[in-house]
Amino acid sequence: LEATGASAAADEVWSEALVAGDVGSFVRVYTDGSSHRLRLLHRAVGHPVAGSHAARVLDAMQVTPGSHPPAALTLRQRQVLQLVGKGLSDRDVSAAMGVSISTTKTHLRSIYERLRVCSRTAAVARAIELRLL
């Protein structure tokens, strides 16, 4: 619903799911880091019934309401980052993955943006910290 622009309907369904999932002191993380789910969680914080549980879910994700955590990496981005983490150069990563150097560099730029870092070393460290690798 969120992806189709039906935000009000998405908020309603999401809030119902949060209320249903608010059992005891358990917190289940409902998101894979997608921008749609994160927006729903952030908006749900203001919901009169589901808000407290949404805040606990964001807290469990180590995300404060109003902040924007790094987006999840795609499978190909994780593959690139794993190879970079092993010390491979762009040329070696490209050869290992069967893609052009330009494609490898595009993946790396996307990784840096998603993880909010500006170097290969920082990207690997941040991915490990976020348990993406």
Please outline what is shown here.
This protein is mainly alpha-helical and 133 residues long.
Main sheet attributes: strand count, strand direction, barrel closure: none
Order of helices and strands: HHHHHHH
Strand content: under 5%
Report low-confidence residues grouped into runs of 5 or more.
none
Q: Mean pLDDT across all residues, rounded?
A: 82
Beta-strand segment tally: 0
Structural class: mainly alpha
Describe the global form. Answer: elongated
Description:
With 133 residues, the chain is mainly α. 59% of the residues lie in helices and 0% in strands. It has helices at residues 7-21, 35-44, 51-60, 75-85, 90-97, 101-115, 120-129. The radius of gyration is 18 Å and the shape is elongated.
Strand and helix layout:
Layout: H1 7-21, H2 35-44, H3 51-60, H4 75-85, H5 90-97, H6 101-115, H7 120-129
Helix pairs in contact: 1-2, 2-3, 4-5, 4-6, 4-7, 5-6, 6-7
Considering the chains and any ligands shown, give keywords for the structure.
133 residues, mainly alpha, elongated
